[in-house]
């Protein structure tokens, strides 16, 4: 099973000589009657600094899955557990000190996206305020203990920018390229995509705005039934998905996009290390 791949990025400023690398990490494995699914996280690397985008399943959950996630969630979702695909293990295999991972940008706070946060004790979390407030409000979809290690959290609630006409929230990081949260609410109350510039294209990570890439062209795809069940606000989710459809079609030559769960997208990431297959 493929767990990691990387591509190289140019920084936003032409004056910056150092290259940015993006390591693609599969940090979740799901097997269900609907098929296989993954957890497509990213690790941005520049000059010894590392930024994680979503964190997948954590070490503690692979060791005590029923205690940490609950038997019902495991059975409904179809999680399979292997500590070797956790973000921390993959980052160690890439040769990094995990203390270098100082920031994580979270699309949202569902259990399969943030279990790995606790494996990085010094990592700051960047997330939409609406999402964090929903988490803190006791919504049953979240697992409160996943943030019980009390990380530093920076919240974003102001649409201070625009990205191809969509409201955007600039992430407070000095990382050689601008990074934005793109509100795509509905799956959860504060669900966001994440985007940053790569050479002459933008990388647009859509999180759970769709589960399968086929949903971009097929509005009646069967997976929509699952997406409807999982949405906090399904009307808003559909509106967000339509925004994604329109923008990737209109700007197809300027945007490289992918979501969290589709293994076919992960298999198409560039420059995969030898021996890794989707």
Features:
14 strands, Metallo-beta-lactamase, Chain A, six-stranded mixed sheet
What can be said about this structure in brief?
By secondary structure, this protein is an alpha/beta fold. The chain is built from nine helices and 14 strands.
Question: What do you see in this structure?
Answer:
This protein is an alpha/beta fold. It has one domain (4-267): Metallo-beta-lactamase, Chain A (4-Layer Sandwich), CATH 3.60.15. It contains nine helices and 14 strands. The chain has helices spanning 59-63, 65-69, 71-77, 87-93, 111-114, 129-136, 224-230, 234-250, 263-267; strands at residues 4-9, 20-32, 35-46, 49-53, 79-80, 101-105, 124-128, 153-156, 161-163, 166-170, 179-183, 192-198, 201-205, 255-258. The N and C termini lie close together (6 Å).
Q: Which secondary-structure class do the elements indicate? A: alpha/beta
The CATH top-level class label: Alpha Beta
Structure summary, number of beta strands: 14
Mean pLDDT equals 91
Our count of helices gives: 9
Low-confidence segments, given as residue ranges, are: 5-17, 271-278
Kindly estimate the percentage of residues that lie in beta strands according to DSSP.
25-35%
- CATH superfamily assignment? Ribonuclease Z/Hydroxyacylglutathione hydrolase-like
Biggest sheet details = 8 strands, mixed
Give the CA-based shape.
Answer: globular
SSE run: EEEEHHHEHEHEHEEEEEEHHEH
Radius of gyration: 17 Å
How many structural domains?
Answer: 1
What percentage of residues falls in helices of 4 or more residues? Answer: 10-25%
User: What's the assembly state of these chains?
Assistant: single chain
How far is the first residue's CA from the last residue's CA? 6 Å
Enter the CATH topology name: Metallo-beta-lactamase, Chain A
CATH architecture: 4-Layer Sandwich
